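Pasting two entries for a bug report.
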Amino acid sequence: MPLGGLVTLLILLPNLLVVFFPPTGLPGAAGKKTALTTTMGIIERVGQVSAFVIPFFYPIKIQGSLETASLAGMILALIFYYVNWGRYALRGRTFRLLFEPCLGIPIPLAISPVIYFLAAAGLFHSWVLLAAAVVLGIGHIYVSRLEWQRAKASIEIAG
């Protein structure tokens, strides 16, 4: 049985924080939806579903330097992802913490899973997962950037 599904489960696990401990300080309603934002939202969802499902069909085999380097990249991205989820949980669960830069990296909770799945594509030697990770990156980073701008705008209005 392929164990590639662990790749998906590990990245989804901390998202349960939002389910059980929803964010506080939600900004007002999003701005007017445009054709671009709607399209990017669809691209984000296609990338998410694809990147989450594809690993289930692959075994995890570490046989050489590509797999070792890919696994190292995955572990580093996952640690950074978990650290940022920890920051969200421990610093008041405010909406802005889901998007606020960390160590100079913008929208870390959007960028780190993309890096994670790009590295997983190397681990699995999967062009299909590579394509899914690129699609995920295009949509998820764009949508998250809009949410970060919305969060910043609400802080400026409130402040």
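Entry 2 (this is the one that rendered wrong in the viewer):
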Amino acid sequence: MNKRKLVSLEFDKIDLFPTTVANFKLGRDFTDDEMSFIDTLDQRGNEFNKTSTNSYVLEEEVLSDLKQFCTDAVNDYFYKVYKPSEDVKLVITQSWVNYTNTNEAHHKHFHPNSVLSGVLYIQTQSDDKIVFYNPKDLPYEFKKIDFNFTNSPSWWLPTGKASLLLFPSTLEHSVPRKETFGTRISLSFNTFWNGPIGSENSLTRLIVSGR
């Protein structure tokens, strides 16, 4: 039986509706006051690691500079990617600190009631990473020559100290089991609209006012 020979064809590749993950750099070390505050927060158990009991850490004065950095990054992403035509912005709602020790992990999840979510990496080790899951994953499996952003069910990114990752809150993600010694510390937050969205003519108008 003759195998069909694959024909090499030229085509224009068009990636419709991509999911944007943005990486921002803080550009400085964390201050002693910031680290002291983060290191001494009360903690509670999560599914496979720990989080701070304080879920509004960016409202604390000691982290005001970090809040401004995160807010600026969020709205830079928002205006460059979504390009709103009206005076609407995103504001940070809840914010908390995650602590992941050796042999701990962070379960697969997404962030409800949020538009964009962010993770600011406070303390990392060489093997630290975050895994994102393909929201367009196909319901079948086949062997692949190699993996790319389109055919992979998941994709991991390295995490670096003082870097901030922003992504749509609906994008599922997790942290694999940490194998190296030390504590991985990250600060996560959610956001929501502040201002007018939608259209009166299409009956979708909503004016959200918040902080």
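Dev reply: Rendering is fixed now. As a check, the viewer should reflect this: The helical segments are 32-39, 64-81.
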